[in-house]
């Protein structure tokens, strides 16, 4: 049987066309697979990021709650210490000299006792605008001879269990009652407090 060579180009064209079509189909299928994999990867990343965001939000809530609890504990601790700092104001009258530096006229003797378990700092008593004329450390057993020890005002530190007396002579003796003594001190947490004769305590550092 004789071969019709005139159809050979047609055959080759058909073969190449089929191969090209097959290649295009394979390429399209491969691209679809890649797009599907990319979509799956993107979906997984979105899910991961969403989970991470949710985790971070939960952690933020936990940290905020812990911070709030710590602040509340610090406030409770500060108030508890301030309540154990007492102030007793007594008006003294001459004629004899009470202690060195205290003249023979009426004066305030303001005794500050720290019955808390921690020190208080920057302790001062004023009968505004008058400062203490003398301050004495009356804590038992704090001196070798057992006598009170004179210190300066304000007192840098009053430790646990210690007691100090501030003596103030505000002007004319007949007007001494017009200048009630006011105590100020800093607690162990660095917060500033004020106390009057009635024992009312006011936290001065409201932002602390």
Describe this structure as you would to a colleague.
There is one protein chain. With 208 residues, this protein is an alpha+beta fold. Helix content is 37%, strand content 25%. It has 1 helix and 10 strands. The chain has a 5-stranded antiparallel sheet with strand order 1-2-7-4-5. A hairpin with a 5-residue loop joins strand 9 and strand 10. The longest helix has 76 residues, at 8-83. The protein is rod-shaped. The model has no long low-confidence stretch (mean pLDDT 76).
Number of strands: 10
Strand content: 25-35%
User: What percent of the residues sit in helical stretches (DSSP H or I)?
Assistant: 25-40%
Rg: 43 Å
Outline, from the CA principal axes?
rod-shaped
Integer average pLDDT: 76
Strand order of the largest sheet: 1-2-7-4-5
Series of H and E elements: HEEEEEEEEEE
Biggest sheet descriptor: 5 strands, antiparallel
The structure class reads alpha+beta
| Discrete helix count | 1
Low-confidence stretches are none
Tell me the span between the first and last alpha carbons: 109 Å
């Amino acid at each position: 049987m004789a071969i019709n060579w005139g159809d050979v180009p047609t055959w080759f064209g058909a073969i190449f066309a089929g191969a090209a079509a097959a290649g295009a189909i394979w390429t399209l299928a491969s691209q679809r697979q890649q797009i599907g994999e990319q979509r799956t990867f993107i979906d997984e990343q979105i899910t991961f990021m969403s989970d991470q965001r949710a985790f971070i939000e939960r952690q933020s809530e936990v940290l905020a709650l812990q911070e709030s609890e710590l602040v509340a504990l610090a406030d409770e601790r500060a108030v508890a210490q301030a309540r154990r700092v007492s102030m007793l104001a007594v008006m003294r009258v001459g004629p004899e000299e009470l202690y060195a530096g205290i003249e023979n006229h009426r004066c305030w003797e303001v005794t500050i006792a720290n019955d808390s378990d921690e020190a208080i700092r920057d302790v001062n008593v004023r009968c505004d605008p008058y400062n203490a004329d003398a301050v004495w450390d009356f804590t038992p057993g704090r001196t070798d001879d057992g006598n009170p020890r004179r210190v300066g005002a304000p007192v840098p530190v009053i430790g646990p269990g210690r007691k100090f007396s501030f003596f103030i002579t505000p002007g004319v003796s007949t007007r001494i009652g017009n200048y009630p003594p006011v105590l100020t001190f800093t607690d162990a947490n660095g917060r500033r407090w004020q106390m009057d004769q009635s024992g009312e305590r006011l936290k001065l550092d409201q932002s602390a």
